[in-house]
Structure to design on (576 residues):
C-alpha cells in the first residue's frame, strides 16, 4: 500500500475517532446535566411524583396591576393544577387508594376509579383531573406505588368581572392557547412563554444539548406591569354597579385617567363577563365599549366648543349673544333643552345653562372650517388615540366635512358625531392639562424573569391648545360646579372641581333618534388647577330620570372624594 493511501486511511480513522469521541463527550455532558443539574426533576419522575408524558405545559407571563405604593397585584396569573394517573397493574389495594384520595380531599368518581384500576394491561390511565396542589402534596407524602401526578397550569383572573373588558382572556384559537381579547391579546407575544413539556428521561439524553444548557427555555419569560391601580379600579367598578342597579341602563362605563400623562388608572363597563368562565357568555359581551364602541356624547362636548372659541380668539367668557331659544339651519330647528328664551347672555351662562344655541353661536363665529380643524386636529378626533388595547375603532366625525351648517351646529353640542369614550376623555384632558394631547396607555413596563425591566415608551404629549385657553375654560367649568350644578350644593370647600354634564339623544338604525331614550355623560377633573384625575362616566338609556345631572352627579363626586382621600391629595382652596 502506498504511503499516500496509508496517510488517507489514517486521516479518515482519525476523523471518525474525533467524531465518535465528540459524540461520547456530548452524551457524557448531557448525562451530567440530567443527573446532576436536572437530577431532582428526573428523580421525581422515578419516584412517581410526575408522569412522563408529552402533553405541553401551559406557561404564560403574569399581568400585574400597580398599587399606589408600587406593589404588584395579579390581574391575570397562572394557577397550578394536576391530573392524577395510575399504572393499574401496580395498584395492589384499591380500597386503600380510595381512602387516600378521600383523605387528600380529592373529588373523584369512585366507579370511574375502580374501572380504571381494573385495566391491568394498560400502562397508564388518568383517574382524576383538576386536582389542587395541596391535595397532591398530601398524596405525594404517602408514596403510593403506581400513582402519578401530571402538573399543568391554567389562566386565572382574580378580579373576576371587574375590569374584564380590559384584561380579556386566554382561549384556544383552534390549535393553541392565545390571548383573545383585551391586554391578553394586545401583549400576547410578550406574555407567551415556551409551552414546555416533561419528557422521558431516556429520550432527554438525546434531546438538543442547547436545550439542556438553557433548561429548555426558548424565550425570555416576561410579565406586563399596568398603570391601573387596584383600589381605583374597585372604586370605579363599585360606582358603575350602583349606577346600573339604580338606573338600569343598557350599558354603563367609565374611565379614570391622569390627564397630564394619559396613564389609565381605571377602566370598566357593565354588563361584563367573568374571564374565568368566558365560554359561558355570548361573544358580544367581550367587546370593550370604552375603546370599541362610539357614542354621541352630548353636552360635555360643549366644553370643547367653548374652549376652541376662546383659543381661536373668537370669544371670551364675557362675550354675549342674544339667545332666542331656537335657531333654524338648513331647514332644521336647533333649540335649547328646555325651549326657553334667555335673551342676551354671556358664554359663562352658555356653559352654566348648557345652551345649544350658545355653542352654535360660537361655531358660527369661528366659521365651519376653523371649527372643524379644532375638533378633528386640535382635539385629535379624526384619528384613533393609539391606546394599547385591541380593536380601537375610529370616531365618526365625517359630518365635520359637510357643506351643511346644521351638521357643525349639532356637533358643537355633541350630537351628529360619535366618539369612543377613550377619545372623548383624551380630548377633554386638553382642557385640564394646559392644552396637551396625550396618548392614553394601560401598560407601563415589561419585566423579564432575569430582572431586566423595559419601560414602554409612549409618544410625547403634543401641545395643541394654548395654556391660557386651558386655564380660562377650567375657571369657567369650576364656576359651573360652584354655582350651577345641583344649585352649587356639590361645590367642594377644599378642592376645586371642573365638571360638566351631558344628555344626548340616541340615534336609531336607519336615521333619526330613539324617542325618550338618552345617553347620560359626566366628566370632570380635580383639583382643577393642578389635576391629578380626570373622570368620564356615561350610561346608555337609564330609566327613571331625564338628565345626567340627576343620575351621574352623585357617583362622580363619590369617586372624587374616594380618590382625593386615598391618594392624600393636598387641598387647593381654603375650606371653612
Amino acid at each position: 500500500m502506498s504511503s499516500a493511501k496509508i496517510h488517507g486511511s489514517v486521516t479518515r480513522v482519525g476523523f471518525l475517532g474525533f467524531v465518535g469521541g465528540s459524540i461520547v463527550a456530548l452524551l457524557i455532558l448531557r448525562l451530567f446535566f440530567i443527573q446532576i443539574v436536572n437530577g431532582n426533576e428526573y428523580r421525581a419522575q422515578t419516584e412517581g411524583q410526575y408522569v412522563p408524558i408529552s402533553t405541553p405545559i401551559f406557561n404564560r407571563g403574569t399581568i400585574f396591576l400597580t398599587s399606589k405604593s408600587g406593589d404588584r397585584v395579579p390581574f391575570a396569573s397562572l394557577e397550578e393544577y394536576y391530573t392524577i394517573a395510575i399504572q393499574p397493574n401496580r395498584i395492589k389495594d384499591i380500597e386503600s387508594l380510595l381512602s387516600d384520595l378521600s383523605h387528600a380531599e380529592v373529588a373523584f368518581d369512585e366507579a370511574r376509579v375502580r374501572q380504571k384500576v381494573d385495566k391491568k394491561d394498560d400502562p397508564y390511565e388518568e383517574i382524576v383531573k383538576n386536582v389542587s396542589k395541596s391535595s397532591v402534596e398530601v398524596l405525594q407524602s404517602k408514596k403510593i406505588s403506581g400513582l402519578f401526578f401530571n402538573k399543568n397550569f391554567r389562566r386565572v383572573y382574580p378580579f373576576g368581572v371587574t375590569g374584564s373588558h380590559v384584561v380579556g382572556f386566554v382561549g384556544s384559537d383552534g390549535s393553541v392557547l392565545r390571548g383573545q381579547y383585551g391586554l391578553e391579546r394586545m401583549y400576547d407575544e410578550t406574555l407567551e412563554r415556551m409551552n414546555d413539556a416533561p419528557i422521558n428521561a431516556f429520550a432527554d439524553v438525546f434531546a438538543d444539548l442547547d436545550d439542556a444548557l438553557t433548561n429548555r427555555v426558548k424565550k425570555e419569560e416576561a410579565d406586563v406591569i399596568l398603570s391601573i391601580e387596584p383600589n381605583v379600579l374597585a372604586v370605579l367598578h363599585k360606582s358603575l354597579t350602583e349606577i346600573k342597579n339604580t338606573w338600569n341602563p343598557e350599558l354603563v362605563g367609565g374611565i379614570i385617567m391622569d390627564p397630564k400623562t394619559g396613564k389609565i388608572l381605571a377602566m370598566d363597563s357593565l354588563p361584563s363577563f367573568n374571564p374565568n368562565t368566558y365560554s359561558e357568555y355570548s361573544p358580544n359581551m367581550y367587546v370593550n365599549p370604552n375603546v370599541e364602541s362610539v357614542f354621541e356624547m352630548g353636552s360635555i362636548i360643549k366644553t370643547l366648543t367653548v374652549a376652541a372659541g376662546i383659543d381661536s380668539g373668537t370669544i371670551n367668557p364675557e362675550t354675549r349673544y342674544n339667545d332666542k331659544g331656537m335657531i333654524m339651519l338648513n331647514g332644521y330647528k336647533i333649540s335649547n333643552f328646555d325651549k326657553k328664551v334667555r335673551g342676551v347672555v354671556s358664554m359663562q351662562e352658555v356653559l352654566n345653562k348648557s345652551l345649544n344655541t350658545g355653542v352654535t353661536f360660537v361655531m358660527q363665529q369661528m366659521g365651519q372650517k376653523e371649527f372643524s380643524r379644532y375638533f378633528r386636529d386640535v382635539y385629535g378626533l379624526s384619528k384613533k388615540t393609539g391606546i394599547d388595547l385591541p380593536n380601537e375603532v375610529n370616531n365618526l366625525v365625517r359630518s365635520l366635512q359637510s357643506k351643511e351648517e346644521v351638521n357643525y351646529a349639532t356637533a358643537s353640542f355633541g350630537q351628529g358625531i360619535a366618539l369612543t369614550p377613550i377619545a372623548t376623555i383624551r380630548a377633554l384632558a386638553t382642557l385640564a392639562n394646559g392644552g396637551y394631547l396625550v396618548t392614553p396607555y394601560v401598560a407601563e413596563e415589561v419585566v423579564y424573569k432575569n430582572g431586566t425591566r423595559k419601560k414602554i415608551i409612549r409618544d410625547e404629549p403634543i401641545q395643541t391648545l394654548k395654556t391660557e385657553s386651558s386655564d380660562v375654560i377650567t375657571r369657567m367649568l369650576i364656576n359651573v360646579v360652584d354655582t350651577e350644578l345641583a344649585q352649587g350644593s356639590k361645590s367642594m370647600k377644599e378642592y376645586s372641581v371642573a365638571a360638566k354634564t351631558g344628555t344626548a339623544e340616541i340615534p336609531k338604525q336607519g336615521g333619526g333618534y330613539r324617542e325618550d331614550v338618552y345617553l347620560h355623560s359626566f366628566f370632570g377633573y380635580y383639583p382643577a388647577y393642578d389635576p391629578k384625575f380626570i373622570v368620564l362616566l356615561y350610561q346608555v338609556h337609564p330609566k327613571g330620570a331625564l338628565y345626567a345631572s340627576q343620575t351621574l352627579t352623585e357617583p362622580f363626586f363619590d369617586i372624587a372624594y374616594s380618590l382625593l382621600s386615598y391618594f392624600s391629595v393636598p387641598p387647593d382652596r381654603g375650606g371653612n
